[in-house]
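Dear support,

We are seeing what looks like truncated structure output for some complexes. This example has two components. We would appreciate it if you could run it in full and send us the complete token output so we can diff it against ours.
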Amino acid sequence: MKVRVLVSLKPGILDPQGKAVELGLHGYGFQVEQVRIGRLIELEVPAGDRAEAQAKAKAMCDKLLVNPVMEKATIEVL
Amino acid sequence: MQVAIPTFPGSNGDHDALHACGAVMGWDTRAVWHREDRLPAGTDLVVVPGGFSYGDYLRCGAIAALSPIMADIRRFADRGGLVLGICNGFQTLCEAQLLPGALLRNASMRFIHRDVHLRVERAGLPFTRAMAVGQVLRIPIAHAEGNFTLDPDGLAALEARNGVVFRYSSPEGDTGPDFTPNGAAHGIAGIVNERGNVLGMMPHPERAVEKIAGGDDGLWLFRSIADMLSKV
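Here is the complete output from our reference environment:
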């Protein structure tokens, strides 16, 4: 099953990369109030059902994909 | 005195650490490839070196933290062995949860490489026993991700247990955001675990061991370790 994991910085964690992109967008005349940059991880997970795929992806997040000090994850089974 | 220096694909501070521990300090120093699952018998000190292990893929140090040699470094630390993580080595020890916190992108978004001043916040550790609290060291940094971050409760606990070993400072020892090059919380440049045997720091003491190369304040740290181990 395809699983999509969206890793984003927790609120309050400074995102200098997002800030730089925000300034770049301002440079092109776009109105934007905040830019936060995260990471999209697509997984192909062997699983019998969606709950199993979700649980496996959660375990992968806990073990490696996410650093809970600074990041949070949203898991989406497609 | 025997030193092991784990080497990962993308390490680039390993040879500086080999030089500092081997040629300068005169210790029996061995590089250990990341696929090894055991440190050499008789290891007294592990120096996890700087660099860009595994290309900094996913997060700095995240993949190195899972390498076979790190499992034995964890056992070595659990037995009370001395572990020093420098720069990417500090990031790796955080990812391995041997130290709290994480190192984020520098607030300026830039890679910073220059000498900084560090105020010694904790003396008496195996790594700092030759130093005095308030002493200022001049040591280079070279990193893009040195912005130390920890949740407010964790930060308070770290300060309360005197876990901060080095703070960025002025040459006179003043601390604060003005003297912190990378945005690190509380100006933190180096921390130690509760037991006092695992130290992580962003600055490079192994690149400050000879006056001819710009300064030798890093020797304070290596001489502390020598002093410590000679008394075991």
